[in-house]
């Protein structure tokens, strides 16, 4: 048995669900234009390498303190069904089936929320979820803190290592598929790191290290297109 870890946004999905969520929350009046601009600024600064996404995630969680969990869970379900469920890459679905046929465990490893991750795992038949979860008190209100380590960057590697160790599987027998340079800490420790439709920094790093670079297509296309497979 091996383990195949999969990132979610821009990897299994052809879109970034976080950006879509911000726009939808703004359109529905659940956040202000200033809050949406602030969130977009954090994302822009992160992509420019000027801020750690862990800080942005922790800040976003802190802003939920005292709010009721249930409405957000319910809005996430509607959001997923209306805007996200149709966005799986065709190549991602095939890769999942190939690993499933080989008897591998399929594990979602994402910075997305537990609410979104549970819906994805249900539809794709995944074996486990490693993601960001929010602490909720006995009254069903957010405390503003995460449950455990933030699942991003080095945090993702910690989650992957702990899961593999618990399953008795060496990381050398694991694969990880992602589009993001921020996931480099995980790619460096698994036996098969694969860059899927990678961002510019990850593409450059993957080519330098001889990692496969693939494009799994979009919902409007078919097939898995291999882009760059450097000589080993």
Structural summary, described in words:
The longest helix has 16 residues, at 69-84. It is globular and about 45 Å long. Helix 10 (200-209) links the parallel strand 7 (192-196) and strand 8. Helix 2 packs antiparallel against helix 3. The strands form two sheets. A seven-stranded mixed sheet has the order 3-2-1-6-7-8-9. Strands 4-5 form a two-stranded antiparallel sheet. The protein has ten helices and nine strands. Helix content is 47%, strand content 19%. The chain has a single domain (3-228), classed as 3-Layer(aba) Sandwich (Rossmann fold), CATH 3.40.50. It has helices at residues 8-12, 17-27, 33-47, 53-62, 69-84, 90-101, 114-124, 154-167, 184-187, 200-209; strands spanning 3-6, 105-113, 128-132, 134-136, 142-146, 174-178, 192-196, 213-215, 225-228. It has 232 residues and is an alpha/beta fold.
Our count of domains comes out at 1
Task: Give the assembly state of these chains.
Answer: single chain
Please provide the count of β strands.
9
The radius of gyration over CA amounts to 17 Å
User: Strands across the major sheet, in which order?
Assistant: 3-2-1-6-7-8-9
Shape, principal axes of CA atoms: globular
CATH class designation: Alpha Beta
Q: Report the end-to-end length measured between terminal Cα atoms.
A: 25 Å
In the predicted model, the low-confidence regions spanning at least 5 consecutive residues are 222-232
> Mind telling me the CATH superfamily name?
HAD superfamily/HAD-like
Q: Work out the helicity level.
A: 40-55%
Average pLDDT, rounded to a whole number, is 88
Provide the succession of SSEs. Answer: EHHHHHHEHEEEHEHEHEE
Any idea what the CATH architecture is? 3-Layer(aba) Sandwich
Strand content: 15-25%
> How large is the count of helical segments?
10
Main sheet summary: 7 strands, mixed
Question: And the CATH topology?
Answer: Rossmann fold
Structural class: alpha/beta
